[in-house]
Hints:
Layout: E1 4-8, E2 15-20, H1 24-39, H2 48-70
Antiparallel strand pairs: 1-2
Amino acid sequence: CNKTFEVINPANGRVVGSVPNMDVNDAALAIQAAKNAFEQSEWPKFTAKERSSLLKVAFYLLILIWNFIVQ
């Protein structure tokens, strides 16, 4: 999909970004691609507790990187 449309913040009327202007077929392809990527990764093999721990580590790493960038 090469066409996009702007997303407007209703509170102030400003453009906050743009998103693909997808039809049903585009959406189905995107959903299937995401499902395939998920199922072919290691992620589904982790328990919920393991996933939670990994996400917390990723969050803290992002905070560290953010703090480094803003200084």
